[in-house]
Amino acid sequence: MQLLHTMLRVGDLQRSIDFYTKVVGMELLRTTERPEQKYSLAFVAFGGGNKSGQSELELTYNHGVSEYDLGSAYGHIALGVDDVAATCERIRAAGGKVTREPGPVKGGKTIIAFVEDPDGYKIELIETATREI
Description:
Blueprint: E1 5-9, H1 13-23, E2 27-34, E3 39-45, E4 56-62, E5 77-81, H2 84-93, E6 97-104, E7 111-116, E8 122-127
Parallel strand pairs: 1-4, 5-8
Antiparallel strand pairs: 2-3, 3-4, 6-7, 7-8
């Protein structure tokens, strides 16, 4: 088995595409419009997505819905990066929101930080060289 994608419902599809491509650095792989079913999709990923063995994010816009209650069950998406501090600075400079500054995870040595997308979804940045597996 392979993890293919994670779906996030978003309130503004273009705003989310811009965040994940321009701020986070993913590429837009494809979009799908389903006007009769009243939804639109955009798939974003690193390194070509599923074609190269990478998981994808499916951004789903349900027409007419501009925000969602994220509830208490959702945690976060995790992204491995070479340098958490530099990634946070790049994200901040591109207009992104850093919600937890870089530093070691509580009780460990792995360097992490958290950022938030425009819909409030949390994204953990993990410095891969410090990751405790």
